[in-house]
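Quick one, T. Sequence first:
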Amino acid sequence: MNIVFDIGNVLLRWDPRALYRKIIPDEAQMDWFLAHVCNSDWNLEQDRGRSF
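Structure tokens:
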């Protein structure tokens, strides 16, 4: 078995807007959400082991 990690959008494109577009269709709300909720600081804390 092989495990492949895609770091930096090498194999697959990561677009959080595409993921959240169905639940946050408004662009201004999407901008706010990505800037204040789902941002690099949030990802770092999740990587450190913070639970949902």
